[in-house]
């Protein structure tokens, strides 16, 4: 971490809130002091900060964190401005300019948006500002939403080719089980996915302010390390120590494989299929072996309701998910295309039906990736 020149730091709601779930300005100031010290040492910092919902609670008279999406969004839109105002003031005391950046899943997914986000963030760093990123909660829907900022932070780290990702929470490390249980031990280092076998990775903390819990933090570390970005998970109180290279928290070592695209990372880890397309054995072989596109001829069944552009799971006849991809058709269109050659479809239905069900560029193999359920609301 000491040699890192560009660091993405993610801080969760649990680290920024008081015991009754409201925003804690002292915590914001402490964190800002630590980050400003690194900026003074010429380290570029991108802060991914949760806390908009928490900051919106007091002004709206809410005593507990809202559970329904509409109230969460209302609280986030009230709170986001206040949250950034706290950061702006705290960074200004160090002579630094804070910049608000709100991102959606689409901004990570769609090429043009993605480039735009990359350009803006890079420019902000060039001019010496500190970007403060959060999910654009007000426009996010249940279906297309990160919900937590852990995975968003990993995708931002990948997008900016950061040298390190620091995930700050209310717990000082990943433990081999719920840290509130006596006898659980800190995991100092994760080098391979196998190092996590048998680890009880639990959900959000008992105070109920965080969203993803350890599950999304470990997922985030996996996304970042697959993209070649070393990741440290520790508490906000340890932020300075972690940035100074002290052996705190849990270190996730980067993989040495070729860096996947953001879209591939997103498809594999940050989303869930909106439906399923069942492939015949030949199509499974072609997709798995030859990294081919999925053509209508190889589809035998379609399940669920989805629209063109949605992520779907590609399954074999035994129901095993082998890949995930961005589908080019609505679910309702596929039964008329199944089993047909693209040439037949073009001749009978028109040239627009010559396209693949899933193009190889929008497809990622999942054989090594454990299945996960839909993103947390
Ligand atoms: N194996 C584990 N190791 C560490 N913490 C865990 C583990 N399992 C569950 N947790 C819980 O995850 C919580 C952090 O997640 P969360 O509340 O979502 O935080 P944040 O708001 O920082 O994203 C911790 O407070 C802890 O109670
Ligand atoms: N975008 C939301 C983040 C939701 C959340 O709680 O995330 P986290 O604390 O990172 O699990 C907010 O700012 O409140």
Automatic annotation (TrEMBL):
E.C. number, please?
2.7.2.11
Q: Which GO terms describe its biological process?
A: L-proline biosynthetic process
Entry binding sites for substrate: 50, 137, 149
* GO cellular component terms, A-Z: cytosol
Q: Which residues form the PUA domain?
A: 275-354
> Which reactions are catalysed by this chain?
L-glutamate + ATP = L-glutamyl 5-phosphate + ADP
The protein's UniProt keywords, in alphabetical order, are:
Amino-acid biosynthesis, ATP-binding, Cytoplasm, Kinase, Nucleotide-binding, Proline biosynthesis, Transferase
Tell me what this protein is called.
Answer: Glutamate 5-kinase
What species was this sequence derived from?
Answer: Spinactinospora alkalitolerans
List the gene name. proB
């Amino acid at each position: 971490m000491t040699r890192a020149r560009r660091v993405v730091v993610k801080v969760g709601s649990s680290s920024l809130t008081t015991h009754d779930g409201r925003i804690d300005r002292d915590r914001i100031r402490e964190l800002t002091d630590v980050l400003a010290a690194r900026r003074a040492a010429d380290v570029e910092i991108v802060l991914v900060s949760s806390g908009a919902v928490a900051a919106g609670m007091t002004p709206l008279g809410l005593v507990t964190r809202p559970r329904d999406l509409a109230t969460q969004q209302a609280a986030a839109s009230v709170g986001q401005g206040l949250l950034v105002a706290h950061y702006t003031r705290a960074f200004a005391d160090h002579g630094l300019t804070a910049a608000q950046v709100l991102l959606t899943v689409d901004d990570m997914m769609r090429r043009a948006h993605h480039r735009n986000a990359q350009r803006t963030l890079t420019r902000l760093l060039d001019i010496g500002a500190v970007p403060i990123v959060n999910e654009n909660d007000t426009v996010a829907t249940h279906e297309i939403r990160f919900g937590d900022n852990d995975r968003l932070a990993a995708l931002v780290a990948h997008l900016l080719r950061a040298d390190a990702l620091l995930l700050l929470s209310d717990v000082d490390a990943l433990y081999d089980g719920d840290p509130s249980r006596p006898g659980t031990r800190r995991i100092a280092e994760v080098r391979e996915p196998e190092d996590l076998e048998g680890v009880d990775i639990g959900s959000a903390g008992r105070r109920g302010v965080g969203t993803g819990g350890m599950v999304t933090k470990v997922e985030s570390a996996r996304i970042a390390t697959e993209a070649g970005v070393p990741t440290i998970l520790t508490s906000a109180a340890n932020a300075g120590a972690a940035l100074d290279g002290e052996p705190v928290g849990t270190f996730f070592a980067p993989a040495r494989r070729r860096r996947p695209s953001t879209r591939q990372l997103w498809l594999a880890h940050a989303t869930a299929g909106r439906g399923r397309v069942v492939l015949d054995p030949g199509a499974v072989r072609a997709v798995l072996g030859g990294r081919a596109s999925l053509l209508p001829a190889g589809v035998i069944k379609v399940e669920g309701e989805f629209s063109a552009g949605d992520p779907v799971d590609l399954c074999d006849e035994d129901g095993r998910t082998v890949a995930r991809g961005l589908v080019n058709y609505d679910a309702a269109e596929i039964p008329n295309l199944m089993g047909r050659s693209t040439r037949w479809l073009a001749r009978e239905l028109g040239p627009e039906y010559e396209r693949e069900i899933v193009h190889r560029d929008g497809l990622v193999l999942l054989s090594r990736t454990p299945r996960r359920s839909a993103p947390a609301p």
